[in-house]
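[Target chain]
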Amino acid sequence: MQEKNNIYKKFQSFDNFKNINNFNINNIEKKIFSTYQKLKPKLSNYFDTKNLDLLEKIISDLKSSNKAKTDFSLKPNSIAEINTFDNIEILKYLISRYKYEIYPLVKKLDSYPPLVQIEPSSICNFRCVFCFETDKSFTNKKNGFMGTMDLDIFKKIVDEIEGNVDFVTLASRGEPLVAKNFSKMLDYCSEKFLILKINTNASLLTKDKCHAILSSGVKTIVFSADAADEKLYSKLRVNGDLKKTLANIRMFKMIKDKNYKTNKIITRVSGVKFNNEQKFTDMENLWGELVDQVAFVDYNPWENCYEKEENDIQEACSDLWRRMFIWWDGKINPCDVDYKSHLSPGKFPEISIKDSWNSDLYNKLRNYHLNKKRNNFTPCKACSVV
C-alpha cells in the first residue's frame, strides 16, 4: 500500500519556479485594484451577477492579510500573466484563475471546465523516462492510441469553448508539433482565449512554426527540458538532443526579438524533477538567458496505475473540478493518468463538452471521490493525484 505522504498535488506542482525578470507583487496588486475601481461602475456590462459577486470576493481575498486555505492569492506564474493584461482583461483573468484554483478546493462545479486541454497529437518523437510514451502497449499503433487531431474536430472544439472557457492548453500525452495542422490550429485560436498555452519539447520547432506561434496570440509556451548538461538530458529525454533543443529555443528567441518586439508571450523552460542529479541552479544558468521563467515540476508517479496495488488515498482528485482532456480522436477524458481512457464519458462531437462535463459518469466520479470511494475506479484506486 502507498503511504498517504505519497500524495501528488496536481495544482501548483512546482518544485521550483523563478521569474527571470522579478515582478513587484505590490505593483501588480495596485494595477488590479485601480482597474477594478476604474471599471466598477461598468462591470455589469461585462459580467453577470454570479461573476460580479465572485470578482468582489477575489478583490477582498487579495486585500486580506489573514488568508484562509480557500482564499485567492497571486502565484508567481499568475503575476507574470497578469502583467501582460490591461483593463477588463485583468478582471476576466482573475475570475477564470479563481475558478481554476479555488473551485477544485471547495468542490464547486461550473457549467464548463475552467481549463480545456486539447491534444493535437498523442504521438511523440521522444521516450522520456517519466512519460506515458514509455508504455509500449500505449505506443503500439495496433492498439489505436496513436494519432493526430483532425483540423475539423479541433475547430469544432474551439467553437464550443470560445466564450465559455478562457484557459486552453495544447498538449497532453504526445508532442503537439507532430500534428501536421498545428499552425492552422493556432491560427484558428487567434484572439479567442485569454490564456492559450503550448507545451513542447522544442525539437520540432522550425522558423515557420516559430512565426505561427508568435503571430497567433499564444500567451505561454513551455519548453520541456529537464537538465542542463547533454548526458543527463539524453538520459531523461531519450531520443532528445540538448544541442538541438538549445538551438531551437535560441532561434525562437531571436525571431521574437527581431520580428515581434511588442509580443507579450511568456516563455518557460520547465522540467520534471525526477532525480537528485538535476540541479535548479544549473537550469537557471543555462536557460535563464533564453526564457522568462525556469521551473521544475514534481514527478507524478503514474506508472502502472492500471495494474499496481491499490493505495490508501481517499482525498478527491482536484482535476474533476479543474480541467478536461480531449484526445486527438475526440475522446473526452477526466485525467491524463488514465491515458488509456478507462474513464471516458464519450467522444466529441457526439457528446458536447458542456454535456460531458456535467454528465452522469463525471458526476458519479466526483461523488465517489468526495465520499472517499475513489478505489471503486481504475486507475483512481492506484493513482496518487489529488
Q: What stands out?
A: The radius of gyration is 20 Å.
